[in-house]
Design brief:
With 240 residues, the protein is mainly α. Helices cover 72% and strands 0% of the residues. It has one domain. Helix 1 runs parallel beside helix 7, helix 3 runs antiparallel to helix 8 and helix 6 runs antiparallel to helix 9. The longest helix has 31 residues. The radius of gyration is 18 Å and the shape is globular.
Length: 240
Amino acid sequence: MFPMPIWRLVLLHLLPGALATLVFIFLADSVQAAGYPPLAALLIAIAVVIIPFELGVVYFAGRGEPGLLSAVPYRERVPLRDWLLLVGALVVVGILGFGLIGIIEPPIRDALFGWLPSWMLNPLPTDAIGAYSSSAWTTTLGAYLVLNVFAGPITEELYFRGYLLPRMGQFGRWAPLVNTVLFSLYHFWSPWQFLSRIAGVAPFAYVVWWKRNVYLGMAVHVLLNGIGTLAVVVYVMNQL
């Protein structure tokens, strides 16, 4: 696999996140005026920008080659026992990474990003559940489960760890860390979570690189997002 030029790597890492953030900002007021929490605007951005963009790049990169995932070389087999052990360990490490670093996120958010609008700082206002109807919450949370637990993580792993990471050979053993840093920066809509994303994602990015298996990253990403998302969904639904 030939390394991709650094400027192109940076562009492809950051561009989908930048575009999605612009769509999020553009739609936020309209979505709230329609009676939905601001998270709905971000979910629309994920559905209409991030998923089509990232899957489109992977698809077009593999045109002319057999198989839909021909541009994703990290699909080597891993014994089931090793696969289960690695996924279980990485989920625990990811929870610890996100959780421990997440403790310092509120002061970082308030100190560095307090000037941002409140709907961007808190797109899922669990402290104002009554401000939106039950149907608005049900629709938003249903989309949240589909996009944040399954469609989004699977797409991101195909794109970031399956397509881009194998093309970062010029960084040697630092490639997974560089990939993780750029992946964290790509979340322009929540920059205060930059450090916790590195702590949570870097371990499984290294394992994907080590084992040459993107499905490990998919499984861990889906499980980590699923745990956090389900906790929020259960909490909100119990308050309705």
